[in-house]
Amino acid sequence: MTTSLWRHARLTTLAGTGWCDIDHGAMVVQGERLAWVGPDADLPRDLQVDAEHDLGGALVTPGLVDCHTHLVYGGHRAREFELRLQGATYEEIARAGGGIRSTVAATRAADEATLLAGATQRARALMAEGVTTLEVKSGYGLSLEHEARCLRVARALGTALPLTVRTTCLAAHALPPEFDGRADAYIDAVCQWLPALQQQGLVDAVDAFCERIAFSPAQTQRVFDAARALGLPVKLHAEQLSDQGGAALAARSGALSCDHLEWLSDDGVRAMAAAGTVAVLLPGAFYFLRETRLPPVQALRDAGVPIALASDHNPGSSPGLSLLLMLNMGCTFFRLTPEEALRGVTVHGARALGLRDRGTLAPGQRADFVVWNVAQANELAYGFGHNPCHRVVVAGEECL
Ligand code: NIG
Ligand code: FE
């Protein structure tokens, strides 16, 4: 196992309350883990290292975690964007058979290599800004064969690229055309697919879209029951366009996260707090759909619900590929503090994926970290449209 020393850094560790900065900091990496983190002056005297890196005072944070993406799909929805600019709403387009369904058609028509090439390009764009852990949902296949294909592509990303990929099965994303008028039968089918997908090692978690234009709370519950019976954790697209009570339902099923949440009720906040469910806010979708209703950030704070931020990259509601921009949007739109925003894409993003071994700079954590061309961590949320990411280390290996 190799040991490396990273010194003369400004470490924003996030390992307690506040930024937890160490101004003249050092880290000792052993293999894939951080073995020691502290002030340069306190480095163990008898330390033997294989490599030493002088960071010249640069800022270091934990590697970024994008805990909600739909990275695998075919085609794009630029025409739908034009229709929305002319006044059509996201819901109207979905009800008319466009929206998610149009991406399902394009995804089914694409071959696996094409899907992988597209997803790889997108993942690389996120990685260039310091993303070291990425969640990827299925949900544009909507048949056993095509969902499996999308999840295989997601797994392949994690093998081909230096980052952790967590896969989420979102077969309950929309009703495919072959099940028109038979939503309950489709949910039965999804529940039957889960064991097969799990046996192929393709599923780390199960998600659903609980909404007027998608699935009801009762249908969502059936998907969750099937997932829980297999020991799979659940999460939910909840309260994005209306209050369906989905977040409370998900929290009662022990959900890792509820995502979107613009229409979250007090009851939903309480249920999430009681269950330790993470609130994943998605300012990219809020922006792109020109939503006006804000998620109840102060109520989430008051209740002690951990708040994460993610790109929600997808072709319909959030086609951007910048997690740093989400920090800025999380602050400007949702009034998060820059520190909350950074926690949202590190420690809380990791928690939304059920991962406790990353998201802070502390001994025992995975050595996933980013060296930035800025002096202080609040600048990461302040700027936008430029990329201050300088060096990226994943599991102890420098990869950018
Ligand atoms: O997270 N809300 C549901 N799913 C995606 C959008 C999917 C699409 O429009 O293609 C989201 O916003
Ligand atoms: Fe989403």
The ordered H/E elements are EEEEEHHHHEHEHEHEHEHEHHEHHHEHEE
Poorly predicted ranges: none
Strand content: 15-25%
Biggest sheet character: 8 strands, parallel
* Rg estimate, integer Å: 21 Å
Q: Counting H and I runs of at least 4 residues, what is the number of helices? A: 15
Catalogue the ligands.
N-(iminomethyl)-L-glutamic acid, fe (iii) ion
**Which descriptor suits the 3D outline?**
globular
Number of strands: 15
How are strands sequenced across the largest beta sheet?
5-6-7-8-9-10-11-12
Give the N-terminus to C-terminus distance in angstroms: 21 Å
Instruction: Assign a percent range to the helix content.
Output: 25-40%
Nearest-integer average pLDDT: 97
SS content category: alpha/beta
Descriptive report:
- This protein has 400 residues and is an alpha/beta fold.
- Helices cover 36% and strands 23% of the residues.
- It contains 15 helices and 15 strands.
- An eight-stranded parallel beta sheet has the order 5-6-7-8-9-10-11-12.
- It is globular.
- The two termini are 21 Å apart.
- The model has no long low-confidence stretch (mean pLDDT 97).
- The protein binds N-(iminomethyl)-L-glutamic acid and fe (iii) ion.
- N-(iminomethyl)-L-glutamic acid binds at residues 70, 99-100, 103, 209, 237, 240, 285, 312, 314-318.
Draw up the topology in text:
Elements lengths: L2 E10 L8 E10 L2 E7 L11 E12 L1 E3 L11 H8 L4 H6 L4 H10 L2 H16 L3 E7 L6 H17 L3 E9 L10 H17 L5 E6 L6 H13 L5 E4 L7 H7 L4 E4 L5 H10 L2 E4 L1 H6 L8 H7 L3 E3 L13 H10 L5 H7 L2 H6 L16 E4 L5 H5 L6 E6 L2 E2 L2
Parallel strand pairs: 1-4, 5-6, 6-7, 7-8, 8-9, 9-10, 10-11, 11-12
Antiparallel strand pairs: 1-2, 2-3, 4-13, 13-14, 14-15
The protein binds N-(iminomethyl)-L-glutamic acid and fe (iii) ion.
